[in-house]
Design goal:
Elements (H helix, E strand, L loop, with lengths): L19 E2 L3 H13 L3 E5 L3 H14 L3 E5 L1 H8 L9 H18 L5 E6 L7 H18 L6 E4 L6 H17 L3 E6 L3 E4 L2 E3 L11 H12 L5 E5 L4 E2 L12 H14 L9 E3 L7 H9 L2 E6 L1 H17 L8 E3 L2 E5 L1 H4 L1 H22 L8
Parallel strand pairs: 1-4, 2-3, 2-12, 3-4, 5-6, 6-9, 7-10, 11-12
Antiparallel strand pairs: 7-8, 13-14
Helix pairs in contact: 2-4, 2-12, 3-4, 4-5, 6-7, 7-8, 10-12
Length: 369
Protein backbone atom coordinates (compact mmCIF):
# COMPACT_ATOMS: atom_id res chain seq x y z
CA UNK A 1 0.00 0.00 0.00
CA UNK A 2 1.43 3.35 -1.08
CA UNK A 3 1.90 6.01 1.61
CA UNK A 4 0.71 8.57 -0.93
CA UNK A 5 -2.63 8.62 -2.71
CA UNK A 6 -2.26 7.07 -6.13
CA UNK A 7 -3.54 9.38 -8.87
CA UNK A 8 -6.68 8.78 -10.88
CA UNK A 9 -5.03 7.34 -13.99
CA UNK A 10 -8.08 8.18 -16.10
CA UNK A 11 -7.36 11.89 -15.65
CA UNK A 12 -4.80 13.86 -17.65
CA UNK A 13 -1.60 14.50 -15.70
CA UNK A 14 -2.25 18.22 -15.97
CA UNK A 15 -5.21 17.77 -13.61
CA UNK A 16 -3.12 15.81 -11.11
CA UNK A 17 0.01 17.92 -10.54
CA UNK A 18 0.76 21.61 -11.15
CA UNK A 19 3.60 23.06 -13.24
CA UNK A 20 6.80 24.01 -11.46
CA UNK A 21 9.13 22.08 -9.15
CA UNK A 22 7.32 19.15 -7.52
CA UNK A 23 7.85 17.81 -4.03
CA UNK A 24 6.97 14.62 -2.11
CA UNK A 25 3.60 13.11 -2.96
CA UNK A 26 3.36 15.04 -6.23
CA UNK A 27 6.67 13.55 -7.38
CA UNK A 28 5.45 10.05 -6.54
CA UNK A 29 2.16 10.69 -8.34
CA UNK A 30 4.07 11.57 -11.51
CA UNK A 31 6.28 8.47 -11.18
CA UNK A 32 3.24 6.26 -10.57
CA UNK A 33 1.46 7.85 -13.53
CA UNK A 34 4.48 7.24 -15.76
CA UNK A 35 4.77 3.61 -14.68
CA UNK A 36 1.06 3.01 -15.23
CA UNK A 37 0.90 4.80 -18.60
CA UNK A 38 4.16 3.32 -19.92
CA UNK A 39 6.50 6.28 -20.26
CA UNK A 40 9.71 7.44 -18.60
CA UNK A 41 10.91 10.92 -17.74
CA UNK A 42 14.16 12.27 -19.21
CA UNK A 43 16.56 13.27 -16.42
CA UNK A 44 19.00 15.74 -17.93
CA UNK A 45 22.32 16.72 -16.39
CA UNK A 46 22.74 20.49 -16.25
CA UNK A 47 25.85 22.59 -15.72
CA UNK A 48 24.58 26.17 -15.97
CA UNK A 49 21.48 28.35 -16.06
CA UNK A 50 21.73 28.08 -19.84
CA UNK A 51 21.45 24.29 -19.85
CA UNK A 52 18.64 24.43 -17.27
CA UNK A 53 16.74 26.83 -19.54
CA UNK A 54 17.33 24.58 -22.56
CA UNK A 55 15.84 21.61 -20.69
CA UNK A 56 12.81 23.62 -19.54
CA UNK A 57 12.23 24.86 -23.08
CA UNK A 58 12.48 21.31 -24.40
CA UNK A 59 9.98 20.03 -21.85
CA UNK A 60 7.55 22.80 -22.72
CA UNK A 61 7.78 21.93 -26.40
CA UNK A 62 7.36 18.22 -25.65
CA UNK A 63 4.55 18.94 -23.16
CA UNK A 64 6.06 16.53 -20.67
CA UNK A 65 7.36 16.38 -17.12
CA UNK A 66 11.15 16.54 -16.92
CA UNK A 67 13.91 16.01 -14.39
CA UNK A 68 16.71 18.53 -14.00
CA UNK A 69 19.70 17.05 -12.25
CA UNK A 70 23.13 18.20 -11.16
CA UNK A 71 26.14 15.91 -10.91
CA UNK A 72 28.91 16.63 -8.43
CA UNK A 73 31.18 18.09 -11.11
CA UNK A 74 28.32 19.84 -12.86
CA UNK A 75 27.27 21.48 -9.62
CA UNK A 76 30.84 22.69 -8.99
CA UNK A 77 30.81 24.22 -12.47
CA UNK A 78 27.56 26.05 -11.71
CA UNK A 79 29.29 27.62 -8.71
CA UNK A 80 32.22 28.66 -10.90
CA UNK A 81 35.65 27.13 -11.22
CA UNK A 82 37.02 30.03 -9.20
CA UNK A 83 35.33 28.58 -6.08
CA UNK A 84 37.30 26.02 -4.11
CA UNK A 85 35.74 22.60 -3.88
CA UNK A 86 37.49 21.75 -0.63
CA UNK A 87 35.09 19.70 1.50
CA UNK A 88 32.67 19.79 -1.47
CA UNK A 89 32.00 23.50 -0.88
CA UNK A 90 31.82 24.37 -4.57
CA UNK A 91 29.57 21.42 -5.42
CA UNK A 92 27.20 22.24 -2.55
CA UNK A 93 27.00 25.93 -3.47
CA UNK A 94 26.54 25.16 -7.16
CA UNK A 95 23.82 22.57 -6.62
CA UNK A 96 21.92 24.98 -4.37
CA UNK A 97 22.34 27.87 -6.83
CA UNK A 98 21.18 25.67 -9.72
CA UNK A 99 18.19 24.52 -7.69
CA UNK A 100 17.13 28.09 -6.92
CA UNK A 101 17.38 29.05 -10.58
CA UNK A 102 15.33 26.02 -11.66
CA UNK A 103 12.75 26.79 -8.98
CA UNK A 104 12.48 30.42 -10.09
CA UNK A 105 11.91 29.52 -13.74
CA UNK A 106 10.17 26.11 -13.85
CA UNK A 107 6.57 27.23 -13.32
CA UNK A 108 6.94 29.88 -16.03
CA UNK A 109 7.63 27.15 -18.59
CA UNK A 110 4.35 25.46 -17.63
CA UNK A 111 5.61 21.92 -16.99
CA UNK A 112 6.22 19.78 -13.89
CA UNK A 113 9.88 19.59 -12.89
CA UNK A 114 11.60 17.12 -10.58
CA UNK A 115 14.76 18.69 -9.17
CA UNK A 116 17.40 16.03 -8.56
CA UNK A 117 21.06 15.47 -7.73
CA UNK A 118 22.99 12.75 -9.57
CA UNK A 119 25.51 10.07 -8.51
CA UNK A 120 26.90 10.53 -5.01
CA UNK A 121 29.53 7.92 -4.18
CA UNK A 122 30.77 7.24 -0.65
CA UNK A 123 33.65 9.71 -0.93
CA UNK A 124 31.20 12.43 -1.99
CA UNK A 125 28.77 12.03 0.92
CA UNK A 126 29.71 15.48 2.34
CA UNK A 127 28.15 16.88 -0.86
CA UNK A 128 24.88 15.07 -0.17
CA UNK A 129 25.03 16.20 3.46
CA UNK A 130 25.39 19.81 2.32
CA UNK A 131 22.42 19.57 -0.04
CA UNK A 132 20.31 17.97 2.67
CA UNK A 133 21.32 20.81 5.01
CA UNK A 134 19.91 23.17 2.37
CA UNK A 135 16.75 21.02 2.12
CA UNK A 136 16.27 21.14 5.88
CA UNK A 137 16.76 24.91 5.97
CA UNK A 138 14.31 25.40 3.10
CA UNK A 139 11.85 23.03 4.76
CA UNK A 140 12.01 24.95 8.02
CA UNK A 141 11.42 28.25 6.24
CA UNK A 142 8.93 27.16 3.55
CA UNK A 143 7.41 23.84 4.61
CA UNK A 144 9.07 21.95 1.75
CA UNK A 145 12.62 20.93 0.74
CA UNK A 146 14.71 22.74 -1.86
CA UNK A 147 15.23 19.63 -4.00
CA UNK A 148 12.66 17.04 -5.05
CA UNK A 149 15.06 14.12 -4.78
CA UNK A 150 18.66 13.03 -4.43
CA UNK A 151 20.73 10.06 -5.50
CA UNK A 152 23.12 8.03 -3.40
CA UNK A 153 25.43 5.65 -5.27
CA UNK A 154 27.11 3.08 -3.02
CA UNK A 155 27.18 0.41 -5.72
CA UNK A 156 30.93 -0.08 -5.27
CA UNK A 157 30.44 -1.00 -1.60
CA UNK A 158 29.19 -4.32 -0.25
CA UNK A 159 25.45 -4.89 -0.45
CA UNK A 160 25.22 -4.78 3.33
CA UNK A 161 27.02 -1.43 3.58
CA UNK A 162 25.08 -0.05 0.63
CA UNK A 163 21.78 -0.85 2.32
CA UNK A 164 22.90 0.35 5.77
CA UNK A 165 24.16 3.76 4.64
CA UNK A 166 21.34 4.26 2.14
CA UNK A 167 18.80 3.49 4.88
CA UNK A 168 20.35 6.15 7.10
CA UNK A 169 20.07 8.75 4.35
CA UNK A 170 16.54 7.65 3.46
CA UNK A 171 15.52 8.35 7.06
CA UNK A 172 16.93 11.86 6.74
CA UNK A 173 15.26 12.39 3.35
CA UNK A 174 11.94 11.18 4.74
CA UNK A 175 12.04 13.83 7.48
CA UNK A 176 11.92 16.61 4.88
CA UNK A 177 9.82 14.85 2.20
CA UNK A 178 12.67 14.18 -0.25
CA UNK A 179 12.70 11.12 -2.52
CA UNK A 180 15.93 9.08 -2.62
CA UNK A 181 17.34 7.18 -5.58
CA UNK A 182 19.87 4.43 -4.89
CA UNK A 183 22.11 2.36 -7.16
CA UNK A 184 22.55 -1.37 -7.08
CA UNK A 185 25.19 -2.93 -9.30
CA UNK A 186 27.69 -0.83 -11.21
CA UNK A 187 27.13 1.30 -14.30
CA UNK A 188 30.17 0.78 -16.52
CA UNK A 189 32.13 3.31 -18.54
CA UNK A 190 33.27 6.76 -17.42
CA UNK A 191 31.33 9.91 -16.59
CA UNK A 192 32.01 13.04 -14.56
CA UNK A 193 35.33 11.69 -13.29
CA UNK A 194 33.93 8.32 -12.16
CA UNK A 195 35.71 5.57 -14.11
CA UNK A 196 34.21 2.08 -14.05
CA UNK A 197 35.70 0.85 -17.31
CA UNK A 198 37.59 -2.00 -15.62
CA UNK A 199 34.86 -3.54 -13.46
CA UNK A 200 33.96 -7.23 -13.65
CA UNK A 201 31.25 -7.91 -16.22
CA UNK A 202 29.20 -9.74 -13.57
CA UNK A 203 28.90 -6.52 -11.55
CA UNK A 204 27.08 -4.83 -14.44
CA UNK A 205 23.98 -6.96 -13.78
CA UNK A 206 21.99 -6.82 -10.54
CA UNK A 207 20.43 -10.00 -9.18
CA UNK A 208 16.76 -10.28 -8.16
CA UNK A 209 17.73 -11.36 -4.65
CA UNK A 210 19.79 -8.18 -4.26
CA UNK A 211 16.95 -5.98 -5.50
CA UNK A 212 14.64 -7.68 -3.01
CA UNK A 213 17.02 -7.08 -0.10
CA UNK A 214 17.14 -3.39 -1.01
CA UNK A 215 13.38 -3.13 -1.50
CA UNK A 216 12.64 -4.92 1.77
CA UNK A 217 14.98 -2.71 3.81
CA UNK A 218 14.03 0.63 2.27
CA UNK A 219 10.27 0.06 2.10
CA UNK A 220 10.32 -0.52 5.86
CA UNK A 221 11.27 3.18 6.12
CA UNK A 222 9.19 4.71 3.30
CA UNK A 223 8.05 3.91 -0.22
CA UNK A 224 9.50 7.16 -1.56
CA UNK A 225 12.59 5.71 -3.20
CA UNK A 226 13.71 4.54 -6.63
CA UNK A 227 16.25 1.92 -7.66
CA UNK A 228 18.91 2.11 -10.37
CA UNK A 229 19.44 -1.62 -10.82
CA UNK A 230 22.22 -2.47 -13.26
CA UNK A 231 21.36 -4.41 -16.40
CA UNK A 232 24.54 -3.87 -18.42
CA UNK A 233 24.34 -0.07 -18.46
CA UNK A 234 27.44 1.85 -19.52
CA UNK A 235 28.19 5.58 -19.35
CA UNK A 236 29.78 7.19 -22.39
CA UNK A 237 29.41 7.24 -26.18
CA UNK A 238 28.51 4.02 -27.99
CA UNK A 239 26.78 3.07 -31.20
CA UNK A 240 23.42 1.32 -30.74
CA UNK A 241 24.02 -2.41 -30.30
CA UNK A 242 27.57 -2.03 -28.96
CA UNK A 243 26.44 -2.24 -25.34
CA UNK A 244 25.04 -5.56 -24.09
CA UNK A 245 21.96 -4.41 -22.24
CA UNK A 246 19.54 -6.91 -20.73
CA UNK A 247 16.49 -4.83 -19.74
CA UNK A 248 14.46 -8.03 -19.52
CA UNK A 249 16.24 -8.60 -16.22
CA UNK A 250 14.15 -5.77 -14.80
CA UNK A 251 11.00 -7.74 -15.65
CA UNK A 252 12.46 -10.70 -13.77
CA UNK A 253 13.20 -8.49 -10.76
CA UNK A 254 9.63 -7.19 -10.73
CA UNK A 255 8.19 -10.69 -10.92
CA UNK A 256 10.49 -11.88 -8.10
CA UNK A 257 9.52 -9.02 -5.80
CA UNK A 258 5.83 -9.32 -6.65
CA UNK A 259 6.02 -12.98 -5.58
CA UNK A 260 7.86 -12.08 -2.38
CA UNK A 261 5.29 -9.42 -1.53
CA UNK A 262 2.31 -11.49 -2.59
CA UNK A 263 0.84 -8.34 -4.12
CA UNK A 264 -1.33 -7.67 -7.17
CA UNK A 265 0.95 -4.92 -8.50
CA UNK A 266 2.95 -6.29 -11.45
CA UNK A 267 5.63 -3.61 -11.14
CA UNK A 268 6.15 -2.77 -7.48
CA UNK A 269 9.61 -1.20 -8.02
CA UNK A 270 10.29 2.24 -9.51
CA UNK A 271 13.34 1.54 -11.66
CA UNK A 272 15.81 4.07 -13.08
CA UNK A 273 17.85 3.72 -16.31
CA UNK A 274 21.47 4.95 -16.19
CA UNK A 275 24.03 4.85 -19.00
CA UNK A 276 21.52 5.07 -21.83
CA UNK A 277 23.91 6.00 -24.65
CA UNK A 278 24.07 3.21 -27.20
CA UNK A 279 20.65 1.86 -26.26
CA UNK A 280 18.42 0.63 -29.07
CA UNK A 281 14.77 1.64 -29.36
CA UNK A 282 13.62 -1.87 -28.42
CA UNK A 283 15.87 -1.96 -25.34
CA UNK A 284 14.46 1.34 -24.12
CA UNK A 285 10.90 0.16 -24.70
CA UNK A 286 11.54 -3.08 -22.83
CA UNK A 287 12.99 -1.14 -19.90
CA UNK A 288 10.02 1.23 -19.78
CA UNK A 289 7.56 -1.66 -19.88
CA UNK A 290 9.46 -3.19 -16.96
CA UNK A 291 8.84 -0.17 -14.76
CA UNK A 292 11.62 2.28 -15.64
CA UNK A 293 10.25 5.74 -14.91
CA UNK A 294 13.42 7.82 -15.36
CA UNK A 295 16.28 7.73 -17.85
CA UNK A 296 19.46 9.74 -17.38
CA UNK A 297 20.70 11.80 -20.30
CA UNK A 298 24.06 13.56 -20.34
CA UNK A 299 26.52 12.47 -23.04
CA UNK A 300 24.17 13.12 -25.95
CA UNK A 301 23.03 16.52 -24.69
CA UNK A 302 26.63 17.57 -24.06
CA UNK A 303 27.35 16.90 -27.72
CA UNK A 304 24.17 18.64 -28.83
CA UNK A 305 25.05 21.77 -26.86
CA UNK A 306 28.52 21.90 -28.38
CA UNK A 307 27.22 21.03 -31.85
CA UNK A 308 25.03 24.12 -31.88
CA UNK A 309 28.12 26.27 -31.32
CA UNK A 310 30.22 24.25 -33.78
CA UNK A 311 27.72 24.72 -36.59
CA UNK A 312 27.34 28.42 -35.84
CA UNK A 313 31.11 28.93 -35.95
CA UNK A 314 31.39 27.00 -39.22
CA UNK A 315 28.68 29.14 -40.82
CA UNK A 316 30.04 32.48 -39.61
CA UNK A 317 33.74 31.70 -39.28
CA UNK A 318 34.85 34.78 -41.21
CA UNK A 319 32.75 37.02 -38.96
CA UNK A 320 34.31 35.62 -35.79
CA UNK A 321 37.98 36.43 -36.33
CA UNK A 322 37.93 40.05 -35.20
CA UNK A 323 35.62 42.65 -33.72
CA UNK A 324 35.61 44.64 -36.96
CA UNK A 325 35.98 43.41 -40.52
CA UNK A 326 34.16 40.62 -42.33
CA UNK A 327 33.24 39.55 -45.89
CA UNK A 328 30.78 42.45 -46.06
CA UNK A 329 33.49 45.06 -45.54
CA UNK A 330 36.69 45.89 -43.67
CA UNK A 331 34.87 48.34 -41.40
CA UNK A 332 31.82 46.18 -40.65
CA UNK A 333 31.34 45.27 -36.94
CA UNK A 334 30.84 41.65 -35.85
CA UNK A 335 29.20 42.16 -32.45
CA UNK A 336 25.95 40.53 -33.54
CA UNK A 337 27.92 37.32 -34.16
CA UNK A 338 30.35 37.14 -31.22
CA UNK A 339 27.89 38.33 -28.57
CA UNK A 340 27.65 35.28 -26.23
CA UNK A 341 23.87 35.54 -26.25
CA UNK A 342 23.92 34.65 -29.95
CA UNK A 343 26.09 31.53 -29.95
CA UNK A 344 24.99 30.28 -26.53
CA UNK A 345 21.43 30.49 -27.81
CA UNK A 346 22.43 28.24 -30.72
CA UNK A 347 23.73 25.73 -28.17
CA UNK A 348 20.46 25.87 -26.23
CA UNK A 349 18.39 25.38 -29.37
CA UNK A 350 20.48 22.38 -30.41
CA UNK A 351 20.27 20.79 -26.96
CA UNK A 352 16.54 21.39 -26.76
CA UNK A 353 16.02 19.85 -30.19
CA UNK A 354 18.04 16.74 -29.26
CA UNK A 355 15.87 16.29 -26.21
CA UNK A 356 12.75 16.02 -28.38
CA UNK A 357 14.12 12.68 -29.58
CA UNK A 358 14.60 11.61 -25.96
CA UNK A 359 11.04 12.50 -25.00
CA UNK A 360 9.79 10.58 -28.03
CA UNK A 361 11.88 7.45 -27.38
CA UNK A 362 10.65 7.39 -23.77
CA UNK A 363 6.97 7.73 -24.85
CA UNK A 364 6.77 11.01 -22.92
CA UNK A 365 5.59 13.38 -25.68
CA UNK A 366 2.34 15.16 -24.80
CA UNK A 367 2.01 13.47 -21.43
CA UNK A 368 1.31 16.91 -19.89
CA UNK A 369 -0.78 18.27 -22.75
Amino acid sequence: MASFTLPDFSKPLKEIVPPGVLIGDDVMKVLAYAKHKGFAIPAVNCTSSSTVNAVLEAARKAQSPVMIQFSNGGAAFVAGKGISNKNQEGSILGAVAGAYHARAMAKHYGVPVILHSDHCAKNLLPWLDGMLDADEKHFKENGEPLFSSHMIDLSEETLEENIAITSKYLERCKSVNVILEMELGITGGEEDGVDNTGVDNEDLYSKPEEVWEVYKALSAITDKFTVAAAFGNVHGVYKPGNVVLQPQKLEQHQAYIKEKLGCEEDKPVYFVFHGGSGSTHDEIQTAVKAGVIKMNIDTDTQWAYWNGIRKFEAEFHDYLQSQIGNPEGADKPNKNKYDPRVWIRKAEESMSERLQAAFKSLNALNTYA
